[in-house]
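Troubleshooting: if your tokenizer reports a length mismatch, compare against these two reference records.
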Amino acid sequence: MQIFLILGIPVILILCALVFKRPKVFGIINSAGYLMVLVFSIILLRKLFFLAPAGFVSYLGFIYLDSLSAFFIFVTSVVSFAASLYSIGYIRNDLDKEKITEKKARIYYLLFNLFCLAMFFVPAVSNLGMLWVSIEITTLVSAFLVGFYNTKESVEAAWKYIIICSLGIILALLGTILFSYAFAISGLSRSLNWQEMVPVAHILDKNILKIAFIFILVGYGTKAGLAPMHTWLPDAHSQAVSPISALLSGVLLKTAIYAILRFGIIVVKGVGFAYFGNLMILFGVISLAISCGFVIVQKDLKRLLAYSSIEHIGIICVGFGLGPVFGVIGALLHVYSHAVTKSLMFFGAGNIINVYKKHNMNVIRGVIKVMPFTGIMVLLGMFALAGFPPFSIFFSEFLIIAAAFLKGSYLVAGLLLLFLSVIFGAFVFHFGKMLFGNTPKDMAVIKEPLSVKLSFLFLFFQVCVFGAVLPFIKKELVWFAQRLF
């Protein structure tokens, strides 16, 4: 029942956005709607992840929900609510400064809800073909949000985003067709329902599954921002509206990871874990290496955070590639930890850019003096994002590195430690200059909206408390990780 409320509330908000003519007020209504979505997603997560980790629910053969689905829906709802709360002050500021009109603000909320609805559909559908359709819809809708301000740079980024991700999604479609073909030639009825394919994966043609998964990994890996298919991501994230940058990095990339996992489970049961794991580790390490180089030399604030997203997607892939138990637990927790931490950082970047009118980190100085609340949140978020204890990303990275050592993958563990150390140093260097440099003479202290502060605190609370709750959910996480593949 909860899933229909989770999907229904964004639909209602879409209809309201079409008729409601006061965007400043609608922003509050929109945020209240996503608070309800968050509550229902927590109920669903508790039902499927904690009370019945092996259970699932299915409706009319179209909706299929298990503990993996519930987890990704929960992550999506957390970031969606935070982004809706942050949007209140952000859009109001754009209206007050006449950067956008009220009509444009209404379009923003319409696209915002369409985007969130599409992302909620991805982990909810049972048919792998509909999964592909849902991810394609996220591309088409979010492209308008990337090019929202209609500047030369944003429009160029939106077109680049559409072209590269559409090419990737075509490869994913070919992979999906090959999975269906492997199912059909095995003497079974042609189907793309995941729950029908998994039980018979062991009798499917292994060579077709291997080829099909390469298409899936490259295709959906393009949408996830895996290197070397990542080239759209820095432009799109840097040009999108800041609440949308948080959704792109915190949630959209994870929907593609979810799709890879769904196909990967079939491959593991049909071919064995080694094939799946080696490919995931390979692309994960490549993503870490490439992002590490770009983070060091980066000058644009939002592009820095975009390349950091590529790094963290690489870490997640390495975790899943290392396998149960610690690798999978670490990867799942990293999905959640990165989502909340990176959203906080994009909100901070949005505030800084709005005040300083610049993206270039070399000319942004004294943020803590000009914007004390944002400055402190960004400082703490920087340490959290770099994996500094006791923040949540530290625990997920620790589990993944531990998994590498326990598996005997010492080279992978060494590379992880090397790249994470370099990126930590680069973050301290870049953000140290911005936060503590000499304040420009014409800059006055800025008063930040309450809705913006609440969105920061909502996310930062989760960044901090994760380590405290981990011992209480260890049993469920271990049980789930053992059964995932």
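Reference record two:
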Amino acid sequence: MYPELFRIGDFVISSFGVMVAIAFLVAYWISSLEYKRKGLDEKLLSNVFVAAMVGGIVGAKILYLFENVPIPEIIRNPIPHLFSRGGLTFYGGFFGAVLLVWIISLTSKVGLWKILDGLAPGLAIGHSIGRIGCLLVGDDYGVPSDLPWAMAFPKGLPPTTERVHPTQIYETILLGILFVLLWKVRKKQAPDGWLFSMFLILAGIERFLIEFIRSTSPSPIHGLSLAQVIALGLIIVGIIKLVQVRELKAKVKKGNK
């Protein structure tokens, strides 16, 4: 674990912060290649990424606090909680980013699904890189395990001296594979929304399964975590959109005959 890369007085450069920055930069670069291929304005991408960064970080922190800190405590001491080390959730960031990107789509008059399709591969690799930051800071690890590669996080968030599943590594690998898959099929000719739908379905399945070996926030549904409920919702959204895309494609094909 390397939660702090270096410190200058009271100013700390954390490994998590650096990995998040790298994740955004790589995601931006990958997305810029897709936007260029699709003939979309690079200025649109810049606006989308600023919105995604702001919405993502704020949303990630808000959902984390909602899951882990009593609301009265947040109200009494908001600053320490809002600026605490770590404490970001992917789904909070995802919804916050999508909300602001949707606003950008309205102002730019470019379809939301077209924008999201261009972001899908970059989002997958960015999430993969971000999980390396979680590993370095000792966050989002799994349940106890006696497997040879199990790890302890004595300075983690929270600390544990018990060996656990390094689910951050599992997700880094699985999301990396998802990126490769999306990158290979991205040139397929199909109506807007199909590629991001694939991301929602496959990333949702990955998260749903990984949650079985993680200790995370419970949901109102017995036996499922909150993240699993959200993942199921995203899988359903992805399937519905993919069905709509296929129906539209079939209708267009029929009309061209």
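Descriptive notes for reference record two:
- Residues 226-255 form the longest helix (30 residues).
- Residues 164 and 173 are 17 Å apart (CA to CA).
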